[in-house]
Amino acid sequence: MLDASWYLPSAGRDPTAEFAAAHIPGAQFFDIDQLSDRANPLPHMLPAADDFAAAVGAMGVGEDDRVVVYDGAGLMSAARAWWTFRIFGHSRVAVLDGGFSAWRAAGRTVETVVQAPTPRHFGATLDPARVRDLAAMRANLETGAEQVLDARGPGRFASTEPEPRAGLRGGHIPRSRNLPYPALLDPTDGTVLPEAGLRAAFEVVGVGLGAPVVTTCGSGVTAAALAFALHLLGHDAVALYDGSWAEWGGRGDTPVET
Questions:
Q1: Do 104 and 212 meet the contact criterion of CB atoms below 8 Å apart?
Q2: Does 177 lie in the same domain as 68?
Q3: Which domain holds residue 96?
Q4: What is the DSSP letter of 246?
Q5: 65: buried, middle or exposed (CB in 10 Å: 19+, 13-18, 0-12)?
Q6: Which among 93, 126, 159 is the end of a domain?
Q7: In the 3-class helix/strand/coil scheme, how is 176-222 assigned residue by residue?
Q8: What 3-state class would DSSP assign to 119?
Q9: Catalytic pick among 173, 201, 217, 229
Q10: In which band, very low, low, confident or very high, does the pLDDT at 168 lie, cut at 50, 70 and 90?
Q11: Which is more confident, 8 or 173?
C-alpha cells in the first residue's frame, strides 16, 4: 500500500506531514515530487528506470507484489503513481477507490507510526509507447492522429483563470478537449463513477473511445486520472504528455488557443 498524495501549493496542504499524522496501516509514502527527474526544470518528469526501481524497491515493493496506491483527494495524484508503475512495466497495480477519505469514512484503522520497510528487488523498463514528448505533440498538431484531452479546470483551459505556476501562458493546446478530472468522480464521496457515467463524461466532451488519446494537464499528475478512467473503460490506446502545460505553456514557440 502506497500513499501517493500530492497537492498544488495553493491548496496549503503538506502531504508528507499528513502521511506522518495518519495513514493506512503498513503504507509507505510515494513522493511524486521526489520520484521524478530532479535534474529536469519541469515538474514531475519521469525518472530514469533504474532510479524508479531503486526508490520503490527501498519502499519494500517487489517485482511480484500487488501494489495499491491511494491519495488524500480520491484520485488527484494516486493515478499518477498507478501510471508510473505501469509505464515501467509493473501492471499489478490498482487505485483505492475514494482514497484515504473513503478509508476513514468506512471507520477503518489508521496508523501514526511509519513502519520501516524491508527492501526488495524491483526491476523497471520504460514503455515509451505510453508517454509523449514535445516533439510528438508538435507532430500531432499536423497529423491529428491522437485526440488530446486536458484534465485542468475549465478556467485554466480557457485562460479565464491564472495558472498556479508563474511564467505560464493561459489557454490550451490547439484542438484539445477539456475534461477536468473531478468530472470522473461522484461528488458525494469522491469514488470513481460507474462505467456508464465515465463513458458519458468522455462522450460529452467529444472524445471518441475508438481512437487514440493523449492526456495532459498542468504537470502530468491529473492527466493520469484521465488515463486511468479510460483504462477502466477498456481503452488502453492512451499516452500521457509528460511535460504537459508546464512545458507547452511555458514556451514562446508553441501555439495556444483560448
A1: no
A2: no
A3: 2-126
A4: H
A5: middle
A6: 126
A7: CEECCHHHHECCCCCCECCHHHHHHHHHHCCCCCCCCEEEECCCCCC
A8: coil
A9: 217
A10: very high
A11: 173
Q: For residues 160 and 158, what is the distance between their CA atoms, to the nearest angstrom?
A: 6
Report residue 210: phi and psi, to 5°.
Answer: -100, 5
2-55 pLDDT per residue, tens: 999 999 888 899 999 999 999 999 999 999 999 999 999 999 999 999 999 999
C-alpha–C-alpha distance, residues 229 and 248, integer Å: 24
Q: Which residues of 74-108 are buried (b: 16+ CB within 10 A; e: fewer)?
A: bbbbbbbbbbbbbbbebeebebbbbbbbbbeeeee
Same domain, 44 and 14: yes
Same domain (yes/no): 121, 8: yes
Mean pLDDT of all residues in the chain?
A: 97
Given a contact cutoff of 8 angstroms between Cβ atoms, the answer to whether 83 and 224 are in contact is yes
Is residue 217 flagged as an active site residue? Answer: yes
For a pLDDT cut of 70, what percent of the chain falls above it?
A: 100
Q: Are residues 92 and 208 in the same domain?
A: no
pLDDT(74) > 90: no
Residue 53: Cβ-neighbour burial (10 angstroms; 0-12, 13-18, 19+): buried
**6, 32 Cβ separation under 8 angstroms:** yes
